[in-house]
Amino acid sequence: xxxxxxxxxxxxxxxxxxxxxxxxxxxxxxxxxxxxxxxxxxxxxxxxxxxxxxxxxxxxxxxxxxxxxxxxxxxxxxxxxxxxxxxxxxxxxxxxxxxxxxxxxxxxxxxxxxxxxxxxxxxxxxxxxxxxxxxxxxxxxxxxxxxxxxxxxxxxxxxxxxxxxxxxxxxxxxxxxxxxxxxxxxxxxxxxxxxxxx
Length: 198
Fold this sequence. Notes:
Helices cover 31% and strands 21% of the residues. The chain is α+β, with helices and mostly antiparallel strands.
């Protein structure tokens, strides 16, 4: 009887460990919680260190709201790596932000008490493709004299990570979440601040 009881206990302990969510699932829950503005749920997917860091922060709701502004509504996982010892994982993500165009995300995970927890995560708008700059060291090709036949010039293309949806300047600053943000800061993070008539 003791052996059966011991086997049942071992089985009950093993089942929750086996049913623990993988990093992709945990990130999906974190992403949805952030978009919904659920501070407590966001914190439940974070590592103990990140929860402690956020606990002392005033205005957690505003921080989560600002984080949500930098997220695309939908995304895909392009890379999922787990360390050889199974204690750390890394996800690379892609999405299209409503106002910022194509974006890339990264998430770092740590296994705590058998469950995957998010330690760090970020999203940034991808740089748009631009024509390559001419190298000053390369001479200009010789032009054919007028009246002679010329061959079609080959146009080189610049590979991009995602489709270009809108033009942005090369000097565009990345989204940085700050306690106090200007309208320009909010726009860089994908927000559309209201305009007031005076």
